[in-house]
Amino acid sequence: KNQVEQSPQSLIILEGKNCTLQCNYTVSPFSNLRWYKQDTGRGPVSLTIMTFSENTKSNGRYTATLDADTKQSSLHITASQLSDSASYICVVSGTRGGSYIPTFGRGTSLIVHP
Amino acid sequence: DVKVTQSSRYLVKRTGEKVFLECVQDMDHENMFWYRQDPGLGLRLIYFSYDVKMKEKGDIPEGYSVSREKKERFSLILESASTNQTSMYLCASSLTGILDTGELFFGEGSRLTVL
Lengths: 114, 115
What we know:
The complex is a heterodimer of chains A (114) and B (115). Chain A has 114 residues and is mainly β. Chain A contains no helices and eleven strands. Chain A has strands spanning 3-7, 10-14, 19-26, 32-38, 45-51, 56-59, 62-67, 72-77, 86-96, 99-104, 108-113. In chain A, strands 2, 4, 5, 9, 10 and 11 form a six-stranded mixed beta sheet that branches. In chain A, strand 4 (32-38) and strand 5 form a beta hairpin. The termini of chain A are far apart. Chain B is 0% helix and 51% strand. In chain B, strands 2, 4, 5, 6, 9, 10 and 11 form a seven-stranded mixed beta sheet that branches. In chain B, strands 1-3-8-7 form a four-stranded antiparallel beta sheet, with no helix packed on it. The A-B interface holds A 9, 31-32, 34, 41-46, 49, 89, 91, 93, 98-100, 102, 104-107 and B 4, 31, 40-44, 50, 90, 92, 94, 96-97, 100-104, 106-109.
């Protein structure tokens, strides 16, 4: 069964500090991995996409890594800001019949305190 | 920008009522999805549709039905609402074919409370 596990479940940090969120998956066949950010009361929005051949990808202060051998990904947030407070969801997509089938992690809730 | 619009942000219904949640997307996406999101459980797929008048069950379809009469509109129906259907409901859409990267575009969500 395809599964995506995220850790930690929740995280509290001070503004300006760095943090790293983890994602382990067992999805086959693997097509890509996305990190979504979901602000409170809003829908998730895609931050990054990682394909099999990519190890690292940055989007501003967000850097995602992927180790396809160990089936692990991380999302590193640098110099955190209050606006980074959100839920971060790891989504791994396989394919079925030419379409992407996403498997969702349960998310990491990040709170950034001033 | 892709816009996915859900008709109601907040709804309060009574047990046994029929509930309609509407979702419209403006980017001609073929795929549309309905998820529910509960604390600690993440997003769970209720139903999805790859084409007009086409639907497939997701992981938790019991108690729900859907309708897709037009490409841009995907409706979720609770025939007889129950308290355990109190949740946040998220609609999403995506492309298909060579332009498909698997990215889901979500609406703002509809928070349903069933009393």
